[in-house]
Design a protein that fits this description.
Blueprint lengths: L3 E3 L3 H25 L4 H15 L4 H31 L15 H15 L12 H29 L6 H29 L5 H10 L1 E3 H7 L1 H7 L1
Antiparallel strand pairs: 1-2
Helix pairs in contact: 1-2, 1-3, 2-3, 3-5, 5-6, 8-9
């Protein structure tokens, strides 16, 4: 018997890495449109462009460039997300995003297990993912769906002003903004916990090896280990 277990398929690892890259690009390129407080990003990007073009308009040049990056990143993220979702359909019922145990009591027990793991440094009774990881995965999924759908409609509205009424456009923009804020907050929490020393095995499995030590899985992910036997 191997000393390691397969934790992530190469497709899962590739999607996770590329999703992270595109989300970072979307955040950086979208911030100047989100608030004037972040206009310095557009000025920083636009200054060399305006110097090259000789138009003396660093802000508008930067915003135009960032808009292309934002739209391109959103389009590519949508493409890889759709491809990934179709690839995962064959094993949708076996994905680790589903609860190991259903019910209200299971939620409270999941919180208790997370407290044991993160605060008391003890082994929790986890599956492959703990309650917080499952919850963050679902929140990120739904916010990304809302961002992609609202983003595509807003791009079409930007290309053709008569595509949507202004009140619908404003509603979509609010959906896009709120989804972005929620996704950004959850992503920051997700990254924080992913970088904790107690999660180093999962981090290496996702970004480097795709595998986890069998004894570690047995001790720290007993519900998952029982399914592997």
């Amino acid at each position: 018997m191997s000393n390691t277990v397969k934790a992530y398929h190469p497709l899962e690892m590739s999607f996770h890495k590329n999703m992270l890259r595109f989300v970072i690009l979307l955040i950086i390129s979208g911030l100047p449109f989100f608030s004037k407080m972040f206009s310095f990003i557009a000025y920083g990007v636009g200054y060399p462009i305006s110097e090259f073009l000789g138009n003396g308009q660093p802000l508008s040049s930067g915003l135009a460039f960032l808009r292309v990056i934002h739209w391109s990143s959103g389009f590519l993220l949508a493409v890889i997300s759709v491809v990934f979702l179709f690839a995962m359909l064959s094993k949708i019922n076996r994905l680790s995003i589903w609860p190991d145990v259903w019910g209200v009591d299971a939620i409270f027990d999941g919180i208790k297990q997370m407290r044991l793991h993160y605060l008391e440094k003890k082994s929790g009774n986890f599956g492959k993912m703990n309650l917080g990881q499952k919850a963050s995965a679902w929140v990120m999924f739904f916010t990304m769906v809302l961002l992609i759908i609202s983003g595509v409609l807003l791009v079409l509205r930007n290309i053709d002003g008569s595509f949507l009424p202004s009140d619908i456009s404003l509603f979509l923009r609010n959906i896009h903004t709120v989804s972005f804020i929620v996704l950004f907050c959850v992503l920051m929490v997700h990254v924080f916990f992913a970088l904790l020393p107690s999660n180093i095995h999962a981090y290496k499995a996702m970004f480097q090896t795709g595998e986890m030590d069998r004894e570690y899985v047995k001790e720290h992910h007993p519900l998952w280990y029982n399914k592997l036997k």
